[in-house]
Amino acid sequence: MSNLDVRPKPVQCGGRDDVPGGPVHELLPPRRVPLGESTVVRRLLPSLGRRMVGAWCFVDHYGPDDIADEPGMQVPPHPHIGLQTVSWLHDGEVLHRDSLGSLQTVRPKELGLMTAGRAIAHSEESPRDHPSILHGAQLWVALPDENRHTDPAFEHHGDLPVVDGPGFNATVILGDLDGASSPGTTFTPIVGADLALDDGADVRLPVEPDFEYAVLTMSGVTEVDGMRVEPGSMLYLGCGRRELPLRADGDSGLVLLGGEPFEEKLVMWWNFVARTGEEIARAREDWTTGDRFGEVRGYDGPPIPAPAMPATPLKARGRTR
């Protein structure tokens, strides 16, 4: 997934100074952002006040959209460094292509995981013959310094572990939850899980006290730790919990994101996660000149041109503004 802002602002994030030591409730309002030709997403992370949740540094929620007579998602080839992308669907299909030669259709409750490492380019599109409804989330995970120059890779996992309980089930997207482990490659202590709650379910989900957490409501209305969260909203929860109370008012779907607070300070700009403005400028130049990122073959259209660099220097700072 790309950040298609033509004037992207630099985002400084990371560091532990502003991570609350105990439980909190911070409702993160979405910002509507156009994506490609016909898709509008709700951008929840980074937000004005909260930049990261563990190593999770970017969250877009889109749909459910009726695309029966529309092209659906059409995101041309674009570059990434220093991160992993996670494609997660509740409805629809997304065709992934990348400069490694990967070609994979990702369907609901399947994990499409791309590790950018030192450099990769990819595109995402709804297949020509696609389902009528598109609904999902796109997430980025920041890579720690020792792994951010690793070789690029793409993984597709169609069979993910599920944790069951009375009135709910949880598909483990990344990391570990209640003894179940995702096969997806991770580089920091992290968890991502898709929760489906039945009407009236009252659940106390075990969580790690050293992790910080947030919950994205995909569908339905859920009380998260006693706070009502509407669809398309995300509630940041801080640290210090051993269990997370959830109660569903009607069938609902959630994505739980968590991890150890990310200690390193980062700078994010456009589709790049780095440590300095100089690294960002070099990656932009390489994309513009056709170096380093390779070619995405098969997409019907030109790649996305890099926006102009901001006039002010890019500096790595803390997690919140």
Range of strand content: over 45%
CATH top level?
A: Mainly Beta
Count of discrete structural domains: 1
Based on Cα principal axes, name the global outline: globular
Main β sheet profile: 10 strands, antiparallel
Quaternary form: single chain
Percent helix? under 10%
Termini separation (Å)? 24 Å
Q: Name the CATH homologous superfamily.
A: Jelly Rolls
GO molecular function: metal ion binding
Domain Pirin N-terminal: 45-141
Organism: Actinomadura syzygii
Region (Disordered): 1-25, 291-321
Task: Walk me through this protein's architecture.
Residues 45-141 form the Pirin N-terminal domain. Its cofactor is Fe cation. Fe cation binds at residues 78, 80, 122, 124. One of its GO terms (molecular function) is metal ion binding. It holds the Pfam family Pirin_C. The chain is mainly β and 321 residues long. It has a single domain (16-259), classed as Jelly Rolls. 4% of the residues lie in helices and 50% in strands. It has one helix spanning 277-289; strands spanning 11-14, 23-28, 31-35, 39-45, 56-66, 74-80, 83-91, 94-98, 103-106, 111-115, 120-125, 133-142, 153-157, 162-165, 168-177, 180-181, 190-197, 202-206, 212-224, 227-229, 234-238, 243-259, 265-269, 272-274. Strands 2, 14, 15, 16, 17, 18, 19, 20, 21 and 22 form a ten-stranded antiparallel beta sheet that branches. Strands 3-4-5-12-7-10-13 form a seven-stranded antiparallel beta sheet, with no helix packed on it. It has a four-stranded antiparallel beta sheet with strand order 6-11-8-9, with no helix packed on it. A hairpin with a 3-residue loop joins strand 3 (31-35) and strand 4. It is globular, with a radius of gyration of 18 Å. The two termini are 24 Å apart. The mean pLDDT is 92.
